Amino acid sequence: MLVVNRGCSRMRNWILSLLVIAGQGAPADEKETNAVADRRQSFERPKVLESKAVRMPLRARLNQLQGTVVVQYTVTMEGKAISPRVTKSSGNDVLDICAAKAVTEWKFSPARRSGKPIVQVVEHEFAFEPPLPSELDELKKQFEKQKPLVVDPRQAEGLFAKRGFRHRAKAKIVFTLDEQGFISWIRLEESSGHVELDYLAVAGAYDEFRVDTKKLSELTPRDSRAAANEQKVKAQFYEKEFVFKP
Hints:
This protein is α+β, with helices and mostly antiparallel strands. 38% of the residues lie in helices and 27% in strands.
């Protein structure tokens, strides 16, 4: 008579069941890993097709402004850069706004997933270095030929027409002046919401705005306490608002 040990039989069946489950699970895990790898391989980051040099104010180069700026922006499916935002400031609003403005003039090949264009958020780092000593003399000559002007909001008319702006916009700057009446420090106090107009207000004012030191009373002084807290230096701060009309 054949005697069967039921305990051993149950143990053997349990082990066989584990082996079957393990054998069935391995291919599934492998397929999942391959699928993730395929998805990663099918992704293509945006590529710069055309880039333009950053347009810096002449005085910014002459004053040897330097620093690093990181700008985050969105590349659309059409290959345009929109919504630039400074995620790492150089500590100087002139450099920051110049970097943010620059990416909006670049052209891209959009990001793609499985061959189809998608919207992608990316970052770009700009490193601003001072000009070489041999370049300073030429910069001084160029600056001497440049006639300082008060920023004219009418310069924005073309931008409004191009971008389809339909509403008024305004930007406010806070600044200090040197002994010659040029802006020595500037900050964008209130953004217009449009990088092109902010560029006109900040970079344009820094480069072209000059005040007759005999007419300082015509400027709007900023509260001295606020100024002291902002810069911790003894200087007179002024503010100016630019109103852009469509």
